[in-house]
Amino acid sequence: MHNFFTQLLALIIALVALGGGIYLVIGGFVGLLLYARHAKLQPFWDYADMAAIGLPLGHAIGRWGNYVNQELYGTPTSLPWALSIDNPPTEYADASGFHPLFLYESLWNLLLCGFLLWLWLRHRDRLKPGDMVLIYLIGYNTVRFLLEFLRIETAHIAVIGLNSSQTTSAIAVIVATAVLVYRHRNASPAQSKFHPDGARSESPKAEQA
């Protein structure tokens, strides 16, 4: 069982590295959910929480494929770390460099991975099943939403003035934040304990039985 989840996480990281992005991550997550239900693995969200720690690392590695392909760059800039493009858009033909959005997103995902790992190691006794997934969704989609303001050649939705990626990211952040706040509004610390080895402990009543 351990080998299955290790291989699945490695597959997700590899797919992201090939440029599949968030859609392949979603596909991998759905595959994990279907397998967990078929194999009757319980509790599913414990496995999902642990997988969520590695997802930002997969994004961080995968974004460097955009550097090789000269994709995911932003508006022109004169910053020292500006990205040089061989064939820039015609309207920016005179620009010497562009914002390396892939680099910004890669660095952010490394920080997010570190934060999730720290949270898991130091504060998992305060977490509920699925919290790591929710925090990952909030962290990833927040920076994705902000970086889209630096993108060029993106179609915006006229009514709200945001592109499709920003709209999706905003919805994900709002929903994940609302769910996270709601579940912890009246949470009891005893309801969300983990054993040191990462498995969730039994409730106080179960321990007394």
Provide a descriptive summary of the structure in words.
The chain is an all-alpha fold and 209 residues long. The protein has one domain (2-208). It is built from 8 helices and 2 strands. It has helices spanning 2-17, 21-38, 44-62, 64-69, 101-123, 131-147, 164-185, 204-208; strands at residues 156-157, 162-163. A two-stranded antiparallel sheet has the order 1-2. β1 and β2 (162-163) form a beta hairpin. α3 runs parallel beside α6. The protein is elongated, with a radius of gyration of 20 Å. The two termini are 29 Å apart. The relative contact order is 0.11.
How does the overall form come out from the CA principal axes? elongated
Order of helices and strands: HHHHHHEEHH
Output the strand order for the largest sheet: 1-2
Number of helix segments?
A: 8
Tally of distinct domains: 1
Beta percentage is under 5%
Question: Which structural class do you get from the secondary structure elements?
Answer: mainly alpha
What percent of the residues sit in helical stretches (DSSP H or I)? 55-70%
Low-pLDDT sequence parts: 195-209
Report mean pLDDT, rounded to a whole number. 77
Q: How far apart are the first and last residues' alpha carbons, in Å?
A: 29 Å
What's the total number of strands?
A: 2
Taking Cα atoms only, what radius of gyration do you get, to the nearest Å?
A: 20 Å
The major β-sheet equals: 2 strands, antiparallel
